[in-house]
């Protein structure tokens, strides 16, 4: 079956009444999550993990729901950034640079509708790119054995350490903690109890839901309590004209296209995402516009081209992030790491074989991205005023809801009070690590991929009777080991280059009222 045939199969999966309803629900929840600063898609998806199992959802439906929340949060993050200068998501920081000045000028409606359109264009172009690029990369599946998988796992860890954190050592520490947690329980080969401390509840290992909710939801609640954020100060400017016109669309067409392309290729890098893509797109567009039209450039004061490039880039990157996740089993963020963890709970091995072993799941997810983006466009333009009213909701009102959902979700797994205690302990440790700027995405990645790494490492060493040199015996493994080393070295090289050369003068501070 060719790519078009697989895509049609995917649409037959995504267009079922259940999956359409889940995509619509995910789009609404994702937009609300994006609007409210501090919540984030990773917390929403983490709390959904036990729910999807309690409801008995099939794996493709679970993935569609979580992906819809993920991409919906990118749409929603721009609303608070434009209206009140408070980005709902990290990738929306650059949106505030141009969106908030437009709002102050009485053009909030134009900025919101245009950003929804450019987000849609960037997302759709990236999804088309997934259809073209993903099958090509998936053809490597047959070339991957235990040796290649070990190198691939190490490359995944190095990618997140090098790209998700300004301090790679802390990211590697987080990976190590995740790997250590993945070894708790019975050794699958020898049957020996490992790190159970004579606690029967740890014999089967630590629940994925317990780890994920503790790491993200509970630690976020502790940070919320610590900072005493009783609410989000809002002063929404008048909306003005609610829809952009054709002249404004023509003005931003090339900026949207350039931002989409930049975001797509940035999203292919494991560990990169919408934040990196939006920064590069904004700086690129600023250079081009100031060179071509120095008199008409209004960057930092409300330039529609800057807004369009940023929104297209961060949504394009967020969609193309699914390529390394689907083809290599390398998550690009905390949210996609949780999605990979959910696959392992369904006894599905993430990685290059996914396209051949689970084509309905993969192509159903890709098709749902097309459907979800259409839903988000149709929802975001007419109902943007409704979402804007959510900015007046005090953040503390979310606390009881998050606590109850988290506790019920974790308890439903084994019906054991021990898991609730462990969830709180993990949350307190995660809160402390986050205060030390230790990233959580590499930790959850180490926990998710730890068992896969251990199994393939043992298989590889059994084939060579314990000879370690087998780990770099194939050209694919050599390439992946080299790429992993490069990912770890790059941050140090770039830091030295920044110190030795004058940086580009871009004022990345958010405009103040």
UniProtKB/TrEMBL annotation:
Residue ranges occupied by any DUF112 domain in the UniProt entry: 20-445
Transmembrane segments: 110-134, 140-164, 171-186, 206-225, 259-282, 328-349, 361-381, 393-411, 416-433, 470-494
Pfam short name (any one): TctA
InterPro entries in UniProt: DUF112_TM
Keyword Transmembrane: yes
Keywords (A to Z) from UniProt: Membrane, Transmembrane, Transmembrane helix
Keyword Nucleus: no
Name of the featured protein: Putative tricarboxylic transport membrane protein
